[in-house]
């Protein structure tokens, strides 16, 4: 786990305006900067960046966050990857909590990874040059309908039909990094002879695989003519894990945002052919089944994912695996669907024969996840019999429980109840999720619960986290003792005290990305961030003495803590009185004196 103090120090060192400004054209207007939102299409700027709050917010689509959040959402990086990215920009080495790898080991692994990507980048350059010199490879790509522009965009290359062509690309063909990067293979020595080394990829069109930053981390090679395997992938390496990466995601990012969905296909050539036809929002799994990591990466980019598979038995099997990987991420605000092309087509051949418009029409009619799930569940169940309906419920139970969205789970439960011909509540119980049983809606006139004093103080500290850092041990004890939201208050104080620079709400928000905080803490922090209309408050760069709002917040905190003290003293007095004649009179007199002192020390509390 990355050190919270490191995250705080990192955010204190980077400027969100500089970070966002590398991707979005920003114009200064008053205290903030504005520009066109990179996360949805718009003509009038609704995207603002606050240099004092160190936070971005779009009033159009609601996207908001810190510099870390922006890098994660824009580039599709995980939290650790985004931290590494930002740290690299300012020359910081990521520090992890005790229990992780030692700093020296972390530095060593990072250095090795950089070395491997350097070797892979050099190989990619070599393969591109070889493509330009190979009429055979050029003719093959032309026959597939590809132009030089698309080949350049995807960095396509060609691995010559030779055992050691990479010898011309590197100073030393014996470098161990060539093996570690998956570019060459060492054949085991026999009869005392020296091990023989040879190129992994030979006589193949080469598809570089990039990570979200654009660095080459592996290759896919498509044989020209006949040969097995048709596609050959790089092996697993320190920088390349097939279950985590998607081909074409780096190249497709802009098109994904413009079209509002991502299309998942099965092969490299499908991705490139679709891009050639103007459909640039396609990605492909790397010769492996779709994984939950794949789905999570895609849903960071966009809320709609369409899986496209062949309509044959193998295609439907692959689609089912994708469905299983999607269930834990199938939220109520996400749309996942499945497109099955005619059995004689894959996306490449379909687009070349029928055109992009016909393919888009197929995408528009793709089968929703819920429909595909129910279709597959009922395929081998005879719903005319009690046994068949029972089999349906048994098969559905382990799958429905994985669905992330509560509303979607409920809808699926309702549909299964109809198919199984049983009452909805009984179906929900049968599925093992009895909490889904419908409850009567609260009266329309019911009031929202009044926030407790602790909740108000949580909001106050989320708005002015510097006050949490200043809090004394005694004040912290008063705030936490017996509080129903002790976990949220304690964590907020801990995060505010991490790091050494200026602490802001944006800092706290970024730190919360690393784990799953209590809901009330996340809500409190989020509630303080979207308002970009003002730059006053706890995120101001002014010192507390110069900031009137911070001074007022300090007074509110002192009054709130005094009220908590008074409430707890009065509670203790009532507990003593309840003991009757057996109560401790000396303790009673001490509590009475403390109550008088607290009331006289804050007349406003006394009159409340």
Automatic annotation (TrEMBL):
Binds 1 zinc ion per monomer. It catalyses: ssDNA + n NTP = ssDNA/pppN(pN)n-1 hybrid + (n-1) diphosphate. Keywords: DNA replication, DNA-binding, DNA-directed RNA polymerase, Magnesium, Metal-binding, Nucleotidyltransferase, Primosome, Transcription, Transferase, Zinc, Zinc-finger. It is an enzyme of class 2 (transferase). Its EC number is 2.7.7.101. InterPro entries: DNA_primase_core_N_sf (IPR037068), DNA_primase_DnaB-bd (IPR019475), DNA_primase_DnaG (IPR006295), DNA_primase_Znf_CHC2 (IPR036977), DnaG_bac (IPR030846), DNAG_N (IPR013264), DnaG_primase (IPR050219), TOPRIM_DnaG_bac (IPR034151). One of its GO terms (cellular component) is cytoplasm. Its cofactor is Zn(2+). It holds the Pfam family Zn_ribbon_DnaG. GO terms for biological process: DNA replication, synthesis of primer. One of its GO terms (molecular function) is DNA-directed RNA polymerase activity. A zinc finger (CHC2-type) spans 37-61. Residues 530-551 are annotated as: Disordered. Residues 260-342 form the Toprim domain. Gene3D superfamilies: 3.40.1360.10, DNA primase, catalytic core, N-terminal domain (3.90.980.10), DnaG, RNA polymerase domain, helical bundle (1.20.50.20), Zinc finger, CHC2-type domain (3.90.580.10). Belongs to the DnaG primase family. RNA polymerase that catalyzes the synthesis of short RNA molecules used as primers for DNA polymerase during DNA replication. Monomer. Interacts with DnaB. Contains an N-terminal zinc-binding domain, a central core domain that contains the primase activity, and a C-terminal DnaB-binding domain. This is DNA primase. It comes from Derxia gummosa DSM 723. The lineage of its organism: Bacteria, Pseudomonadati, Pseudomonadota, Betaproteobacteria, Burkholderiales. The gene is dnaG.
